[in-house]
Amino acid sequence: MTAARSAGAISDQAADVAAAVWSALGTVRDPELDDPLTELGFVSHHDVTPEGEAVVRLRLPTYFCAPNFAYLMVADAYDAVSAVPGVTKADVRLEDHFAADAINTGVAARSGFVESFRGEAADELDELRADFLRKAVLAGTDRVCRSVLAEGVDPARLADLTLADAPEGPDLWRLIDRRHELGLPCADHDALIVDPATGEAVQPDALRLHLGLARATRVSQEANSGVCRGMLAARYPGSKQ
Fold first, then answer.
1. How many helices (H) and strands (E) are present in the chain, helices listed first?
2. What's the confidence (pLDDT) of residue 9?
3. Nearest to 132 by CA among 203, 17, 31
4. Alpha-carbon distance 195 to 51, whole Å?
5. Strand order of the sheet with strand 53-58?
6. Rounded to an integer, what distance in angstroms lies between the CA atom of residue 11 and that of residue 27?
7. Least packed by Cβ within 10 Å: which of 48, 113, 129, 160?
8. Residues 201, 206, 207, 213, Cα dihedral to 10°
9. What is the mean pLDDT of each run of 10 residues along the chain (241 residues)?
10. How far apart are CA 135 and CA 129, in angstroms?
């Protein structure tokens, strides 16, 4: 193999790994908004060197975005990128954030949130992550139920439906994924509407209140997403959302 061909092969391989890195970043979500970092515009740069080092830079809508949310995103991005075949080292950093140094140092050292913010943080972020997943299940339930009702199903029947009764599509798949992440029932025969804390099917007498909460959660989530996208665009003019 000539030097030119060898260099070309290395370049092609790095490009393939870079594409895989981008796909991996697409699996990382803002915990509050439940949208991928890549769709939100939170990834400002990603590249892979010929040696296989993945270089990723993240940014957020404001300088003072909550450090616990930011830590989760950077840590998840680091884990996702590190797991990509062909990546020999991950250099994932948050930029333009008041706690960037503590977050970047802690994530790189795999120190955990409490150690990274010693004296300021009392607990790790597992419960926070679970809380946002439960909200994602509520929001997803509203989206799927709206699709069911749009097909003419009697609202009184919702409590009797299973996941298999819901229309196929991204909203249903997303709901099933979030339920799976929480360890909630997510097979075709399982109830469409469940309590995100217990996994138990919501009974008819509690359905109206539950669906009201689900709708409010979905509206809040989508409103927050719109605000964050707008603030990011204002902070970084020309950024792609």
1. 8, 3
2. 53
3. 31
4. 48
5. 43-48, 53-58, 89-94
6. 25
7. 160
8. -100
9. 46 89 98 97 96 97 97 98 97 98 97 92 90 98 97 95 97 98 98 98 97 98 97 88 53
10. 10
